[in-house]
């Protein structure tokens, strides 16, 4: 059975796309991102999907995108930061080489801070980051085979740590 070589999960801004692209290059494979698939399917930006149709609808589209990618893609795949909130999505990840890219709250505020393009962080970024991490940390850990902390590492060092860990 084929499937993705590596699946990256972790909060927004942790570097999933940068690291994912680096890993794909190192492994001579392709990189895919479920956020991009959702945008292509819906024909609108993620912030518009949240605004027009709500988070629940977004999670449904996201689960579908994850399922399609897992079935077809054999390279490096990254999931949106909140994909693990959906139980169906977590079930799809069982047994796969999932890597949790982590960062602490201070680092998240430094890297992402207030980012209106990311609908979940539109107000009070520090409090929202703390709540978001508290709600999600255990879910990332539940689906992941291994955790790689990114706080004081460059994307190259993170990619190396992932290859060493798997
Ligand atoms: C989200 C993270 C985003 C995107 C959406 C919701 C979240 O993905 O899926 O804005 O709930 O954390 P990235 O982690 O790729 O930014």
UniProtKB/TrEMBL annotation:
Localization in the cell: Cytoplasm
Organism superkingdom: Bacteria
Residue positions binding Mg(2+): 17
Binding, ATP: 13-18, 118, 153
Residues bound to substrate: 35, 59, 81, 136
Function: Catalyzes the conversion of 3-deoxy-D-arabino-heptulosonate 7-phosphate (DAHP) to dehydroquinate (DHQ). Catalyzes the specific phosphorylation of the 3-hydroxyl group of shikimic acid using ATP as a cosubstrate.
Recorded family membership: Belongs to the sugar phosphate cyclases superfamily. Dehydroquinate synthase family.
Subunit structure: Monomer.
UniProt name for this protein: Multifunctional fusion protein
Originating species: Streptomyces clavifer
């Amino acid at each position: 059975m084929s499937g993705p070589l590596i699946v990256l999960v972790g909060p927004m801004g942790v570097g999933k796309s940068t690291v994912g692209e680096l890993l794909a290059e190192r492994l001579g494979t392709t990189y895919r991102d479920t956020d991009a698939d959702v945008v292509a399917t819906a024909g609108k930006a993620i912030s518009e999907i949240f605004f027009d149709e709500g988070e629940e609808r977004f999670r449904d589209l996201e689960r579908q995108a994850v399922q399609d990618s897992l079935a077809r893609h054999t390279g490096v795949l990254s999931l949106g930061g909140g994909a693990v909130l959906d139980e169906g999505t977590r079930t799809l990840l069982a047994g796969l080489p999932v890597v949790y890219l982590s960062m602490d709250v201070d680092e998240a505020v430094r890297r992402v801070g207030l980012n209106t393009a990311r609908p979940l962080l539109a107000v009070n970024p520090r409090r929202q980051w703390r709540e978001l991490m508290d709600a999600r940390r255990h879910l990332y850990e539940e689906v992941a085979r291994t955790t790689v902390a990114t706080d004081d590492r460059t994307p190259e060092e993170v990619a190396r740590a992932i290859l060493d860990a798997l």
